[in-house]
Amino acid sequence: MKSAAFALTASVLMAGTFLAGCGAASSAPPSSPTASKASSYKVGLVTDTGGLNDHGFNHLAYLGLMQAKKEFGVTTSVVQSQTASDYVPYLTNYAQQGYNLVIAVGFLMQQAVQQVSKEFPHTKFMIIDDQVNGPNVTSSLFETQQCGYLVGELSGLVQKEHALPNINNDNTLGVVGGMSIPPVNTYIAGFYAGVHAVDPSAKILLKYTNDFNNPNNGQIYAQSEIAQHADIIFQVAGGSGLGVITAAEQSHTYAIGVDANQNYLAPNTVITSAEKGVQIATFDTIKEGVKGTLKPGVQYFNLNNNGVGMATPISAIPQSIVQQVLQSEKEIVAGKIVPPTNIP
After folding, report:
1. Contact 65, 76 (CB under 8 A)
2. Can you tell me the distance from the alpha carbon of 191 to that of 337, in angstroms, rounded to the nearest whole number?
3. Same domain membership, residue 173 and residue 124
4. What confidence tier does 141 reach under pLDDT thresholds 50, 70, 90?
5. What's the Cα-to-Cα distance from 187 to each of 71, 98, 154, 157, 259, rounded to whole Å?
6. Which of 101, 133, 161, 207 could form a disulfide with 221 if both were Cys (CB 3.0 to 4.6 A apart)?
7. 237-265: per-residue pLDDT in tens?
8. Which distant-in-sequence residues (6+ apart) come within 8 Å of 160 by Cβ?
9. What mean pLDDT comes out for the span 135-143?
10. What is the DSSP string of 7-47?
11. Over 199-218, what HEC string results?
């Protein structure tokens, strides 16, 4: 990820329950030290209930998996959870089939990974966005308060300076979260801090959909905030947040995307996105697994290692605002600004 410029593939995935590429792909290039064993290395990925069509979190994990398949020739398989009750059986199925690495996408799968990883101590597991302690589990955590701060500062400046058409005088912004859980709330905590750093008097509305796969709920909650005069809304709700973008587009207000650069969904509406390097974490973990160097424990991703970032803002935003936010990015990297992890 390149902060403030990272762009992810905007391909739209089919929403079948089981997407499999179980046959070994072509081997990695002969120059690769992992080519001899990569084709026999099997990786299974279990999505959370948001599914691959969330245009964000799960989709990015899938892109990382496909990148590893292309570069190393690993065998891959994907299964999409429909309910939380699918987590344990899907993880178990891959372990029973002898998969070398089983990837769980999301904080909500923590208990399932904890259970299944103990039952299959010789299988490697990866969990994204939460920590599971175990000798065969690698956990990937993202300091999204940093990119939340950047999109918050940009939103606060756009609102304060009326830098885009249709910005009102009510000094109000909105946030729609999926669930009140740490991976969501760190984004939001950073957003609050970034907004208030440039406009302490700004009002921020916050609502949770309590799900991640219901765009109708996201749209309803966003419409409620828009009715209260919020004209920039940060969506941190996965698939439910796609409804936030729809509501903003229909009302000629603005949205901030999450996890991936979501500008392609509504180019004149999504003014930037807070990005999470799920694709990078997934690819790197598979690479270490193929090399035989994968270690248990926590991997941290932040601005320093391009693990989080802000997508390039739309060109309608004045460069003076963009440059101010990029300066704040440098100060976060230098430790001069430390965005909080708790919502005030």
Report:
1. yes
2. 13
3. no
4. very high
5. 32, 36, 14, 18, 10
6. 207
7. 999 999 999 999 999 999 999 999 999 99
8. 171, 198, 199, 202
9. 98
10. ----PPPP--SEEEE-S--PPPPTT-TTHHHHTT-EEEEEE
11. CCCCEEEEEECCCCCCHHHH
Among the listed residues 236, 149, 239, the one whose alpha carbon sits nearest the alpha carbon of residue 198 = 149
pLDDT at 15 over 70: no
- Residue 171 and residue 60 in one domain: no
What is the CATH classification number for the domain harbouring 52? 3.40.50.2300
Given a cut of 60, whether residue 2 has pLDDT beyond it is no
What pLDDT is attached to residue 198? 98
SS3 325: helix
| 344 found inside a domain | no
Residue 324 sits in the same domain as residue 262:
yes
Task: Write the CB contacts of 291 (distance below 8 Å, at least 6 apart in sequence).
Answer: 33, 34
Burial class (CB in 10 A: 0-12, 13-18, 19+), 224: middle
Encode burial over 163-202: b for 16+ CB neighbours within 10 A, e otherwise.
bbeebeeebbbbbbbbbebbbbbbbbbbbbbbbbbbbeeb
Domain annotation covers residue 6:
no
- Tell me how far apart the alpha carbons of residues 17 and 70 are, in angstroms, rounded to a whole number: 22
How do beta strands 124-128 and 137-142 pair?
A: parallel
| Adjacency order of strands within the sheet including 254-259 | 203-208, 172-177, 232-236, 254-259, 270-276, 308-310
> Which range of residues forms the domain containing residue 56?
18-142+277-305
What do you get for the CA distance between the two ends of the chain, in Å? 29
Confidence of residue 39 (pLDDT cuts 50, 70, 90): confident
How far, in Å, CA of 295 to CA of 317, rounded?
Answer: 43
Q: With 0-12 CB in 10 A as exposed, 13-18 as middle and 19+ as buried, what is 19?
A: middle
Give the mean pLDDT of 187-197.
98
- In the chain, how many domains are there? 2
Work out whether the CA dihedral 91, 183, 133, 100 comes out positive or negative. Answer: positive
CB of 315 closer than 8 Å to CB of 267:
no
Mark whether 281 and 270 lie in a shared domain: no
